[in-house]
Amino acid sequence: MRSSTVTPPTPTTAPDDPEAVIAAERARIDALDARIVALVRDRMEISETIQRVRIESGGRRVHLAREMEILDHYSSELGSAGRDLAMTLLRLCRGH
User: I want to staple 21 with a disulfide (CB 3.0 to 4.6 A). Which of 15, 27, 71, 85 is the partner?
Assistant: First the structure.
C-alpha cells in the first residue's frame, strides 16, 4: 500500500532550470530519507519491547515465522530488493 502523504513531484515538462529541478527533487528525497530513518528508529524501539516481553515470558528473542512473514511482505511489494531491505530492517531490529 502506498502512502498518499508524499509531496507531489515537481513538474518535469521542459524545465527552465534543470539544476533547480534536480535540487528540488533532491530536497524531497532528503525529507523522505529523514522520515524513513525516524520510522526505522521507531520500529527498532517497538521491536526491542517485543523481544524483551517475549524473553521475559519464556520465549525466544527471534520469532522466525514472523520474520518470514515480513520478508514475504516486502518481497511481494518491492521484489527481491524489498526482501533485501527487509533483511536489513530485521538485522537492525534484532538487538544485540
Answer: 15
CB contact at 8 A, 74 and 83: yes
Report the amino acid identity of residue 87. M
Q: How many Å apart are CA 26 and CA 31, to the nearest integer?
A: 9
- Nearest CA among 84, 63, 83, 87 for reference residue 74: 83
The full set of domain ranges for the chain reads 18-93
Which residue stretches of the chain are H helix?
Answer: 18-56, 64-78, 80-93
* pLDDT greater at residue 17 or residue 2: 17
CATH domain 18-93 topology: Chorismate Mutase Domain, subunit A (1.20.59)
Residue type for position 12: T
How far CA 80 is from CA of 36, 89, 94, in Å, comes to 20, 14, 21
For residue 46, give the C-alpha cell.
517497538
